[in-house]
Structures are given as C-alpha cells and as structure tokens.
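Bench notes, afternoon.
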Amino acid sequence: MCMLNDNKLTESYDGSLTVRLLNNDEEKEDVRCSSYKEAIEVVMDNRYSTTVAKIIGKDGDVVFNSVDMDINDGETEWKHAKRRLSVKIEEYDCPHNSVACFADDLCVQCRMDKIQNQ
C-alpha cells in the first residue's frame, strides 16, 4: 500500500488527518493530527501498544496501514514523496519490491546488486 499520493501531500492539514489506533479487543481511538509528520509520530509512539494503526486522510481514504507497511518505511516514503514535489526524481521500480527504494536512495539489496554488477 502506498503511504501517500503526491496530489494529496501537503505539510499541514489543520486537524483533518486522523490516526486510528485499533486493539484486538475491538477498542479504537481516533487521534486528530494537523500534519503527516504529527500523524507519523503518533503511529510511532503507539506501534507497540496497538494491534493496527492507520492514518486516514481528509477524504476518508486510508493512506497508511501498519498491517501493510512498517511505519519507518512509511516515513521514508513520505519524505521522498514530499521531496519529489519540489524536485524531479527519476522513477525507479525496485526488483526486490522494497517500498523505501528510490533511484537516488537505493535499498540495501539494490546497492549490493549494483556493486556486484560493476
């Protein structure tokens, strides 16, 4: 699952982002956040105490789900998506399906492949 779509990415959201924290006993807690940075911090702070954490955008779409992606990979993807808005970065399709692998910042497996092929 892609953490963010470039067209939905902004630095702040005035409380329109929600982090939904779900536990096995069907309890849920919604935390309103004013930015993706704040939402990521809420997920990181609660990643060991909840079963599932989701970041829900203003339009109700789930833009992050801890079942599908580690929050550290999600944060890396968010930073890269934010940077892509201001700089044109070459598209890169990781052969190892790493969501945090980009043409200008390869994953460990791609770096090893590159070194072996030289």
